[in-house]
Amino acid sequence: MKRTVKNALVLSLALLLLFSFGACGGSGGDTYKSESASSAASQSGNQSADMEDMPESEAGFDEGAETGGTETVRPQDRKLITTVNLQAETKEYDTFMSWLESHVAGTGGYIESSDMYAYNERERSCDLTLRIPADKLNGFLQEMGETCNILQRSVTEEDVTLNYVDAESYRDALLVEQERLMELLEEADNLTDIMSIEDRLTTVRYQLQNYESTLRVYENQINYSTVHLSVREVVELTEPEPESWGSRAVQGMKDNARSIGRFLQELGLFLVTHIPTLLLLGVIALIILLATSRRRREARARRKQQKELIQSMRDQKNTEEQK
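Structure tokens predicted for DUF4349 domain-containing protein:
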């Protein structure tokens, strides 16, 4: 019986290796190591297409889409992880943030993280990480373009098809081996064989959990695209760079006028907010002026007497010369 169990174990391992090589044909004999969900995702092959500062129509936007109803057409046989980076600005910060929260929830997505900054009442910003269903991504991006002013946009697609298929094949092979080991464990009547089978079964279950965790991470990243959004509040929206000389001159004058207006506004705000300090400095200056006024009057009187004395001496000298 002991030899039968050992032969069965050897046969099970041989079947596992044969199944694994068949599932990973063409891989050149490379060993797939499952360490964790994150490490497996980092080993995926990249097939990225960065599109920075492109028009909306070139970055996957469907101009004729209805609100929240546009679905992204994705190849059914490919496993793609899509990441979008957006920089935007808006004049209505509170309204936009309320719209964003409700619209993300309406697409079936969620806000993964949010960092808000408030420099003052009119200078606020927020950095968000959004998870949007992949089939609703284009509609969401179009809505974003209509609701705020997009300054920069980049889209990256990572193809993890090979890694996903490999992980799936190894998982299926481990499930077959686990089932076979359970059958052998029921048939084993020797303590040594039972311990050997259980030891191998523990290893198989550990590896199986790793591959299943890897597949769950892949499924989440594939089904939910990641959108990194940085939005800030502005008084005036950034306008496209003018092309002609006249347009540039007009734009320059507008910018200069806005700069002067902001300077005068800040100057007025500075004077109003620093009235207590200015009053205190004025009182101190008045006290110093009153304290030194007597000395200044005496100094002026002495200078006047000296001038009169000098003039008297000159007149006396002229009189003597005439005689």
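The two ends are 159 Å apart (CA to CA).
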